[in-house]
Amino acid sequence: MHTAREERVIRPARNVYGSLRLPGDKSISHRYGMLAAFAEGTSRFTNFSTGADCASTLSCMEALGAKVGRLEDGTIEVTGVAGHVTPTSQPLDCGNSGSTMRMISGLLAPQEGSFTLIGDSSLSRRPMERIRKPLEAMGARLTLTEGHAPLLIEGKPLTALDYTTPVPSAQVKTCVLLAGLQTAGTTTVHEAVRTRDHSELALRAFGAELTRTLNSVSITGPQALHAIESAVPGDISSAAFFLCAAALFPGSALVLDSLGLNPTRASLLDVLTALGAHISVLNLEEKHAELVGTVQVSSPPEGLGSTEVKGGLAAQLIDELPVLAAIAPYTRGGIRIRDAKELRVKESDRIALVAQNLRAMGAEVTEFEDGLDVPGGQTLHGATIDSGGDHRIAMAFSVAALRAEGDTLIQGSESAAISFPEFFDLLNLVAER
Predict the structure, then answer these.
(1) What's residue 4's pLDDT?
(2) What is the helix (H) or strand (E) element at residue 19, kind and residue range?
(3) For residue 417, pLDDT beyond 90
(4) In Å, how far from its chain's centre is CA 218?
(5) Arithmetic mean of pLDDT, 322-333
(6) Nearest to residue 198, comparing CAs of 164, 233, 241?
(7) CA 236 from centroid of its chain's CA atoms
């Protein structure tokens, strides 16, 4: 974002209490926006993500010929291009959104024409080689700049591929499936660790047929997509900050309505339960194959215990790890995180920034190449937090600040708008002071 760096003071809280309905899931909004823009007909979405990243996806698809309308009640209408984008001489600006750049590349590689994808300085440092390899194996032409954006795609018909992802990545899987959707034959993606399956569920919702096994997904192309209407469930990655905040205060009580509870994303509930938090799920229902429900969370009188996050769980929880690490000093036994090397190539080096900011608040923490050890039973004090322009760091340490002694200053707080513009307002609503 090109605005001046903003700062925000977070004061300690006595408790976390109340009920919230969170903005629409970012992962689902990206996919619904992209698929609706590629489908035929007009799709309508309520509770579409308000984050800047999903706006980047919509603006890229508009530049490729889709029509996007925003109604007064917040509903978003997307009229698609029926499988054929209009090439544009202007670069497609993905902003800060790696999801947009990686997924849209798969959509564009089989289309006619040439396309240039660009992003902000943070996105331009993030690895894009991981999508170039499978797309080139299908016959696509991609040019990167030293493994990064800007990314030039010269679209042409592709051939089907059987691919195993070297690093489990839902974005790479989606990229290959979107290329396979438009390619004759069957394209299969194998994964060692199952990643979030929003793309498979969304493709089916838009009328595509896919085949899934325990560790692979196949799509036979070409297939056409058709418009849908949907209410996007609340974002569980955004909910993570509030769930962890409530878990910090014995006697807390927080209710989150209409939350997305996709099993590949809801592992955080298991981790919080393992730590001793009381979590119950009510009114569970299915919408376009996505599970949605109401979640109640409270903290036990004796506080949280300890846990370890590693292996497949670390891959599934990659976005939630910063906030888990940020609350770890307040647990009785601490939290160990391993197999999370991917955190080093996110919007920032999240392992280094989490360690640096925890130390700024007076915490003891040991940093590893692929994770962190954060002992429990610590008392933290307010400090100046460097978010590194990373939305999840800004939000994670706003949560840690609620239990610290004294005020905490979050530098670069505007970065929260990338995923969750309403974050600070909602945090103020439920933090009792």
Answers:
(1) 56
(2) strand 15-21
(3) no
(4) 23
(5) 97
(6) 233
(7) 9
Which residues belong to the active site? 319
pLDDT at 184: 98
Tokens of 101: 């750049």
φ/ψ bin of 194: left (φ > 0), alpha (ψ from -120 to 50), beta (otherwise): beta
Summarize the confidence of residues 198-208 as an average pLDDT. Answer: 97
Residue ranges, comma separated, of all CATH 3.65.10.10 domains in the chain are 7-24+233-432, 26-230
The answer to whether 216 touches 189, Cβ cutoff 8 Å, is: yes
CA distances from 419 to 34, 47, 62, 83, 127 (A): 17, 14, 20, 28, 20
Burial class (CB in 10 A: 0-12, 13-18, 19+), 77: middle
Cα 186 to chain centroid distance, Å, stands at: 28
d(CA 77, CA 61): 13
**How do strand 113-118 and strand 148-155 relate by DSSP bridges?**
antiparallel
Q: What is the pLDDT, as a whole number, of residue 1?
A: 39
Phi, psi of 141 (to 5 degrees): -115, 115
For the chain, counts of helices (H) and of strands (E) = 13, 24
Average pLDDT over residues 264-288: 94
Cα(30)–Cα(48) distance, rounded to whole angstroms? 9
* Domain 26-230 is found in CATH 3.65.10.10: yes
What residue type is 157 in one-letter code? P
Distance separating alpha carbons of residues 83 and 64, to the nearest angstrom: 11
Nearest residue to 187 via CA among 127, 85, 110: 110
Instruction: Give the confidence band of 193 by pLDDT, cuts at 50, 70, 90.
Output: confident
Question: In the beta sheet, which residues pair with residue 26?
Answer: none
Contact 410, 385 (CB under 8 A): yes
For position 315, what pLDDT does the model report? 81
Neighbours of 183 (CB within 10 A): 24
Q: H or E element: which one contains 352?
A: helix 350-360
The pLDDT of residue 386 = 95
Sign of the C-alpha dihedral, residues 136, 139, 143, 149?
Answer: negative
Segment 216-238 shows an average pLDDT of 97
Q: If you write DSSP's letter for every residue of 59-109 in order, what string do you get?
A: HHHHHTT-EEEE-TTS-EEEE--TT-PPP-SSPEE-TT-HHHHHHHHHHHT
> Could you report the per-residue pLDDT of 103-113, keeping only the tens digit for each?
999 999 999 99
CATH class of 7-24+233-432: alpha beta
Q: Are 24 and 57 spatial neighbours (Cβ–Cβ below 8 Å)?
A: no
Over 70: is that where the pLDDT of 2 sits? Answer: no
- As a whole number of angstroms, the distance between CA 235 and CA 201 comes to 16
Neighbours of 285 (CB within 10 A): 11
Can you tell me whether residue 282 is helix, strand or coil? Answer: strand
